[in-house]
Amino acid sequence: xxxxKDQIATLIDHDxxxxxxxxxxxxxxxxxxxxxxSPHLKAENLILLGDALFREREFRRAINTxxxxxxxxxxxxxxxxxxxxxxxxxRSSSPNSSNISAINENEVKFKIAWCYSALNENKxxxxxxxxxxxxxxxxxxxxxxxxxxxxxRHNRFAIxxxxxxxxxxxxxxxxxxxxxxxGVTAKDIISCFSQILNRSGRAFYDQIDSNxxxxxxxxxxx
Amino acid sequence: xxxxKDQIATLIDHDxxxxxxxxxxxxxxxxxxxxxxSPHLKAENLILLGDALFREREFRRAINTxxxxxxxxxxxxxxxxxxxxxxxxxRSSSPNSSNISAINENEVKFKIAWCYSALNENKxxxxxxxxxxxxxxxxxxxxxxxxxxxxxRHNRFAIxxxxxxxxxxxxxxxxxxxxxxxGVTAKDIISCFSQILNRSGRAFYDQIDSNxxxxxxxxxxx
Lengths: 222, 222
Fold this sequence. Notes:
2 copies of one chain form a homodimer.
Chain A: H1 5-13, H2 17-33, H3 39-55, H4 59-74, H5 78-87, H6 105-118, H7 122-130, H8 139-151, H9 155-168, H10 173-181, H11 186-200, H12 202-210, H13 212-221
InterPro entries (chains A, B): TPR-like_helical_dom_sf, TPR_rpt
Keywords (chains A, B): TPR repeat
TPR repeats (chains A, B): 43-76
């Protein structure tokens, strides 16, 4: 009666999320009935099922599944959960990327927030995002927060988050346009890049310098 | 004025497809104006833009962009295009996976078909899929063809394609259910697995044997 996580992850990676979802239901049912299954594995299985449901745009079911995963995660002894978290720090935190080997609590919260956002439940999405420490925020997380704040007309917070996006990566044109629309000056927007510039030195400067089109487009947007 | 494909691919991988799309438009415009840009690079840029548009669910624009890419691809001398094609044979052919390093003509046709299918234009999607040699079909391609044939009530072709999916991977539950619904017997469905079994020998047999749940679920579906 063995169904492996890898098989489900492979189906998700091939965009066969319908089959992944059905197989994920089998996996979650069998692991929840098995007293030998660790809470860590139960949480991992639930996250995979959540990812399949997300791909199928079954956002409500995905939220419930991710939340169950977080409940199991909370029962894992602290030491092992810390190891898992740090081991995933460099991974993409998009709900479209399946999480196979370890659990990143912040990433799961982000996936829940993304689902709420897809359901136009801004407040619930922001509550979920507030649970992620600001230092742990990735670029997609900052962008989602910016959009949520903007939708809620919290423009000051939205501006801060959009600027954070540009500090991660100057190519997030969406953030540049939003900042211009929110009344931020071109000079102020460009200063976000110069902060990266000061941190990363000449190599990055050369890249920015050759990307004058970016600065021109900022001035045009504002 | 340098925008690199990698920057766009990174944005797509982070699900920042809105920004990827805008940056992709810049990239395509600048490369189409530059007489030094090779047709191969132009095609690659267009595919990246197509992927960003697909993610944004702008299917009509994605179709036009992918078709332009194929036009450039046709102008590439045969030898280099053959190398590109074979170098990508093992890659996932989902439109959700961005294609950075080389061009796979069949994959682009599949992406176009996927867009038509999302627009409920079954016939156009099937025409596109018919351009892919049957030997080059990947699992997601066979599944899309099966669905398209089923929607068009070409049940005999649909059954053949669903069976093809199971020959790729026995875990495509969606295909099992569809075959059962189309009146295929449990014995006939299971025989698809035994074909893989004969090809791959004992190791795969052990896996199948431990997955009796799969055979039980097939019998229940039919």
